Amino acid sequence: MRLYEYESKRILESAGVPLPKGRLVSTPQEASEAAREIGGPVVLKVQVLATGRGKAGGVRFADTPEEAERVAGQMLGMPFKGYTVERLLVEEKLPIAQELYVAATYEERTKGRLMMASESGGMDINEVAEKDPSRIKKVSVGSWIGMQPFQARELSFGLGLAGKVNSAAQAVFLKLWNAFDLFDATLAEINPLVVTEDGRVVAADAHILIEDDALYRQKERLGKLGIHERDDNARPPTPFEVEALKIDKADYRGVAGRVVEFPGNLGLIIGAGGGSLTLFDAVLRNGGKPANYCEVGGNPPVSKIYRLCKLILQKPGVKGLAVMTNVFSNSRVDFLARGVIKAMLELGIDPATYPLTFRSAGAFEEDAYAILRKYGVKYLGREVNFEEAARAAVRMVEGL
Ligand code: GDP
Ligand code: MN
User: Fold this and answer.
1) Distance 226 CA to ligand 2 centre (A)
2) Ligand 1 centre from 204 Cα, in Å?
3) Which of these, 34, 251, 332, 337, could form a disulfide with 368 (CB 3.0-4.6 Å)?
4) Continuous H helices in the chain
């Protein structure tokens, strides 16, 4: 779950990371009150689930409460990166001497955790990372032992920090790590971590993602900070997606879910080891019009496949079905075949004549192929790659 800046900052606050004085507001009046409370120049920041606000006009400054009220009036209600601005964070404007970058996250390559930091934080960190990766310092943190003080020192000196600022930065790194760890975050980022002209080290921005699968055990901890579970999607789920979710939730075995509705004519049952995204892309690349996205894996039972397949086949506008997966090692291909055939037969669809593309392989594939042969389905095996399978599926449903 992606958190708003103000929510991320509540987590940092609970971990003891120094923050600018500030208040969340939703009217210009409140913005002016907040500025008066803060008692000096302020920064006003839109609270939407998007990054890069600074460059898009979502971060503005005001010197007086009157100006804060006026600026807030312009920002509240404005469309911003696909959202409507409903809330602003009004904070003391920090006198910036330096902008640092720091983040705790997971690294795909090592499948481990790490903390990275840079002396060139701020709005251009992505360019820095691309053009000169050596300016991002990294320390790996083991799975069993958290971040150690010597690692915080390594980072801090790696950034060329000295004296009081150096020790303050070390403290922030360790506290950020603790928050990352305690809250089951997949990313906890502070950019910029500001070094002020008077030598304070303060988190000016914060961006935290919580692992969805850990929300069940974070509910209480987050709830105490006023952070509640929500659906991150930009739009509410469609009835089709709600139905699909019910199917997946009804049985804990395996996954046949994460369904997203699209307006196309090609139903998709796709998955296995990242296969969903790759196959979905391959379908689009070949001019296909998906009716849905989904993920299957972890050995879903026949019943789940069958119910999902039935839902997709009945979706208005669906003219064909592509059942395509990576080579399964931990899921039974015959369950997949059985579920698909059962759904078709029940709907009075003849699997032999329906535009069905079946490309799957792995555990129990011979049983799967025997079932498909019995119903006259010309399946594709592992020798047909994703690109070719996707092309075949598109051709079939477009009647080419
Ligand atoms: P983002 O663009 O969505 O990441 O929003 P940030 O909160 O990181 O703000 C973007 C930029 O605005 C920062 O990199 C700073 O340069 C500037 N900024 C944000 N807060 C302050 C502040 O308190 N004082 C000053 N001087 N600049 C700020
Ligand atoms: Mn930022």
Assistant:
1) 22
2) 7
3) 337
4) 5-14, 28-38, 65-75, 125-131, 149-158, 163-182, 215-224, 239-249, 275-285, 302-313, 333-346, 365-374, 386-398
Q: DSSP labels for 77-146? A: T-EETTEE---EEEEEPP-EEEEEEEEEEEETTTTEEEEEEESS-STTHHHHHHH-GGGEEEEEE-SSS-
Using pLDDT thresholds of 50, 70 and 90, give the confidence band for residue 209.
Answer: very high
CA of 11 to the centre of ligand 2 (A): 16
- Report pLDDT digits (tens) over 252-270: 998 898 899 999 999 999 9
- Find how far residue 79's CA is from the centre of its chain: 22
Most ligand 1 atoms within 8 A of CB, residue of 4, 9, 49, 59 to mutate: 59
Residues around ion ligand 2, judged by CB within 5 A, are 191, 205
Here the tokens at position 81 are 């990166």
What CA–CA distances, in Å, run from 398 to 286, 288, 373?
11, 8, 24
